[in-house]
């Protein structure tokens, strides 16, 4: 286990923080070479790699494997990896799971939830592993919540998000991901915290932005969230290359391969 010491990690996050998910070696290496600051081995790999409907069946073993292959592709960026669902239900489990992920090469771990996660955050940070919190829409709770919903729409939800963010900062989190939080509430949290906020679907006032890599590159054409801006057409390029290969094999079958 060799996680980055917290002060080094915090010093390397310079707003505007750029963060992208990666689940494999070539993507991680391309992100690192492009200068992305924070590479997230997200449990979104449940959908983007494994084809599940949500993140709720991702296991610790899968996160350990993907973290280890991402690690091999990264020289400069910080590698952050998700603790999957039910691997941090109490402080002891949280620390044991975080150690497995750190041993696989993560510099830091991320977990979802508010005040109820404070003992878990304290246990992990106390053992020297930096923790990123995750507030707002919590994908690991999508089934209980009956879908992906915007958070902070009313005053009591907004207050509880701000309180939770302050409490997680006090517990030692080095950053907070804000997912699908009303932009004004995300702006207030960003103003009130000293640690950075990293937004996804939460407006442009956060200290940085995180996106799922396929949403940025156009690598998952079957679903793109409404807030995501796609900057490429990886699916289109792949389809074209595959058609060219099909044609090449069919042609060569008819005419023979060139020697
Ligand atoms: O798993 C993931 O990709 C995430 C991002 C959506 C922040 O947690």
Protein described:
The chain is an alpha/beta fold and 259 residues long. The protein has one domain: TIM Barrel, CATH 3.20.20.60. It has helices at 6-12, 25-34, 45-48, 60-73, 91-103, 118-126, 142-145, 155-171, 183-192, 213-217, 234-255, and strands at residues 17-21, 38-41, 78-82, 108-112, 131-136, 175-179, 197-200, 208-211. It has an eight-stranded parallel barrel, surrounded by six helices. The relative contact order is 0.12. The model has no long low-confidence stretch (mean pLDDT 96). It binds 3-methyl-2-oxobutanoic acid.
Question: Which helices and strands appear, and what pairs or packs with what?
Answer:
Blueprint: H1 6-12, E1 17-21, H2 25-34, E2 38-41, H3 45-48, H4 60-73, E3 78-82, H5 91-103, E4 108-112, H6 118-126, E5 131-136, H7 142-145, H8 155-171, E6 175-179, H9 183-192, E7 197-200, E8 208-211, H10 213-217, H11 234-255
Parallel strand pairs: 1-2, 1-8, 2-3, 3-4, 4-5, 5-6, 6-7, 7-8
Helix pairs in contact: 2-4, 4-5, 5-6, 8-9
The structure holds 3-methyl-2-oxobutanoic acid.
3-methyl-2-oxobutanoic acid is lined by residues 21, 40, 42-44, 82, 177, 179, 200, 210, 212.
How would you briefly describe this protein structure?
The protein has helices at 6-12, 25-34, 45-48, 60-73, 91-103, 118-126, 142-145, 155-171, 183-192, 213-217, 234-255; strands at residues 17-21, 38-41, 78-82, 108-112, 131-136, 175-179, 197-200, 208-211. With 259 residues, the chain is of the alpha/beta class. It has one domain (6-232): Phosphoenolpyruvate-binding domains (TIM Barrel, Alpha-Beta Barrel), CATH 3.20.20.
């Amino acid at each position: 286990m060799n996680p980055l010491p917290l002060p080094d990690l915090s010093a390397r996050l310079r707003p505007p923080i750029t963060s992208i998910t990666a689940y494999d070696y070539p993507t991680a290496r391309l992100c690192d070479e492009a200068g992305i600051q924070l590479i997230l081995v997200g449990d979104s790999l449940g959908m983007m790699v494994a084809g599940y409907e949500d993140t709720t069946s991702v296991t610790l073993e899968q996160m350990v494997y993907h973290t280890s292959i991402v690690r091999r592709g990264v020289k400069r960026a910080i590698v952050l990896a998700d603790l999957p669902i039910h691997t941090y239900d109490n402080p002891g489990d949280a620390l044991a799971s975080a150690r497995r992920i750190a041993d696989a090469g993560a510099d830091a771990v991320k977990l979802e939830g508010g005040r109820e996660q404070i003992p878990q955050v304290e246990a992990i940070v106390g053992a020297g592993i930096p923790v990123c919190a995750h507030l707002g829409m919590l994908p690991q709770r999508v089934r209980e919540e009956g879908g992906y919903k915007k958070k902070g729409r009313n005053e009591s939800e907004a207050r509880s998000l701000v309180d939770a963010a302050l409490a997680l900062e006090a517990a030692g989190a080095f950053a907070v991901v804000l997912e699908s939080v009303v932009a004004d509430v995300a702006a207030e949290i960003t103003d009130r915290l000293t640690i950075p906020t990293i937004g996804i679907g939460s407006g442009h006032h956060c200290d940085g932005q995180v996106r799922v890599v396929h949403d940025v590159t156009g690598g998952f054409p079957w679903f793109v969230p409404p807030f995501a801006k796609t900057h490429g057409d990886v699916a289109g390029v792949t389809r074209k290359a595959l058609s060219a290969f099909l044609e090449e094999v069919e042609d060569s079958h008819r005419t023979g391969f060139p020697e």
